[in-house]
Automatic annotation (TrEMBL):
UniProt key word Coiled coil: yes
Any coiled-coil regions, as ranges: 113-160
Segments of skewed composition (Acidic residues): 90-101
Skewed-composition ranges (Low complexity): 75-87
Stated name of the protein: Uncharacterized protein
Keywords tagged on the record: Coiled coil
Region named Disordered: 10-36, 75-108
Length: 287
């Protein structure tokens, strides 16, 4: 901005006082010649005032906003203070030359607010990164704990299910074993009855025949003529005759189709087998 003193010294007054005008014979006041500079405040000259000692009244012109003077500055100007010395153009040029350099120097680097904002943004980024890392670590820890808990619960559930299955399966197998054991016992009894019954009966018959033969020999031991009669099943009588050999001539054999036991009669002596009772007992044992 060009100083105000530089504008004021451009007037044609000889005494150097910018507000001291010349008297003119014209009856009406004349406006001073407007300089060719911008932003000037024009005031009325006191050369046309009948009372030179009166204060100078400014011409009623509207001042530009950027050139409006404060109230104290306008009062000082009305007292016709001598204008200061004109500033050398070199100084103005120097001031004008230094302004862009200083502005360029200021604009070259970031401002303090920008530096603070960059620092805040960096701190926020670091805080976000730290929070994200902490969140990821906490999430991983929670996931690991949840997996361990799920594995423990699964193992406990499997163990409980296996125990329950083992119990029910044991009960089922026990029932099946009892059932199969009953069947096995029935099969064994039937097998033994079918196998052992003939063997046992045959053995008992042979033993009975031998015992009867011994009894008959005892009765005929003294050689006295005796009347011996034998009755019973034909097969047993045939076996008894074969067992007696030559002594069978003294025995009269009478087959009995309905009888089971062998009956031997000699005078007052009667010998009878118990094959029917023994067979009944064997059937009950093998049943």
């Amino acid at each position: 901005m060009i100083p105000l003193a530089q504008y004021l010294t451009e007037f044609d007054e000889q005494d150097g006082t910018p507000f001291a005008g010349r008297k003119s014979p014209a009856p009406h006041p004349r406006r001073p010649r407007q300089p060719e500079f911008e932003h000037l405040m024009l005031v009325a000259s006191r050369a046309f005032d009948p009372d030179p000692s009166a204060d100078i009244v400014p011409f009623p012109l509207i001042a530009l906003p950027e050139m409006a003077l404060p109230e104290d500055a306008a009062t000082t100007a009305r007292k016709a203070v001598p204008a200061p010395a004109r500033a050398e153009p070199a100084d103005a040029d120097a001031g004008q030359d230094e302004g862009p350099d200083e502005a360029a120097a200021v604009v070259a680097g970031p401002s303090q607010e920008e530096l603070l904002e960059a620092a805040r943004e960096e701190a926020r980024a670091e805080a976000r990164a730290a929070a994200e890392a902490e969140h990821q670590a906490a999430l991983a820890e929670a996931l690991r704990a949840e997996r361990e808990k799920a594995a423990a619960e699964q193992a406990a559930a499997l163990e409980a299910a296996r125990a329950e299955w083992a119990k029910s399966e044991g009960e089922r197998l026990a029932g099946l074993f009892d059932e199969r054991l009953d069947r096995i016992e029935t099969v064994v009894h039937s097998s033994l009855a079918s196998v052992l019954r003939p063997i046992a009966l045959d053995a008992r018959r042979r033993q009975t025949v031998m015992e009867l033969a011994g009894a008959v020999r005892t009765l005929t031991l003294d050689g006295a003529p005796l009347k011996v009669r034998a009755s019973g099943p034909a097969d047993l009588l045939d076996a008894l005759a074969a067992q007696l050999g030559s002594g069978s001539a003294m025995v009269a054999f009478t087959p009995d189709k309905d009888g089971v036991d062998v009956r031997i009669e000699c005078d007052q002596t009667v010998i009878e087998t118990r094959l029917a009772g023994w067979r009944t007992a064997l059937e009950e044992a093998l049943a």
